Amino acid sequence: MKREERLTSKGLSEDLHSRINFEHTWVDTIADYLTRYLGTVSFFFINVTFFAVWIIWNSGLFGFTSFDPFPFGFLTMLVSLEAIFLSVIVLISQNRQSKIADIRQKIEFEVDVRSEEETTKILKMLDGLHKHLGIQSERDRELKRLERPTDLEKIQKAVEKEE
Fold it and tell me: Which residues neighbour 75 within 8 Å (Cβ) at sequence distance 6 or greater?
């Protein structure tokens, strides 16, 4: 399949999807699953319930034998470990999402450049048709400017200067 044939909107989305899946490692699969599960209200309520039961059990309010008396040192350690693991999982997911965003941004840039080229070509053709048919159109500077190809290097230098 030629590159031009793939560059339909369906081809672009399929290409993007396949590139994202290609870069998907087993670590990404686990991190995505954990992020989907751990980022839910259900997981939040499970944590709240677990902590409440732990604190009530170990405070001796209902006659249970305390295995982690106040100030709940073991619970504190468990919560700290959970926070570390959750942070790492979130960072792995964010890195992956960043890669996906970079791929999308590159594709959007390519589409934008192609659209600009096509628009410039259409304006030149329309101007040529007006000349060929003898239709007098008002020649303005903006039309002449729009008929010129966009200087991508000039735009890049301007963007870099702003950063």
Answer: 51, 54, 55, 58, 68
Cα dist. 82→7, 15, 58, 60, 115 in Å? 45, 37, 20, 25, 49
- Cβ atoms 34, 89 nearer than 8 A: yes
Gap between the Cα atoms of 74 and 137, Å rounded: 82
C-alpha distance from residue 142 to each of 33, 53, 133, 148 (Å) = 53, 72, 22, 10
Which amino acid is present at 126? L
pTM of the model: 0.59
Chain mean position to CA 44: 25
Are 36 and 46 in contact, with CB atoms under 8 Å apart? no
pLDDT digits 0-9 by tens, 106-131: 888 888 888 888 888 888 888 888 78
Tell which residue, 7, 13, 24, 12, has the closest CA to residue 99.
Answer: 24
* CA atoms of 19 and 103, how far apart (whole Å): 8
- DSSP classification of residue 141: H
**How far is residue 16's CA from residue 102's CA, in Å, rounded to a whole number?**
11
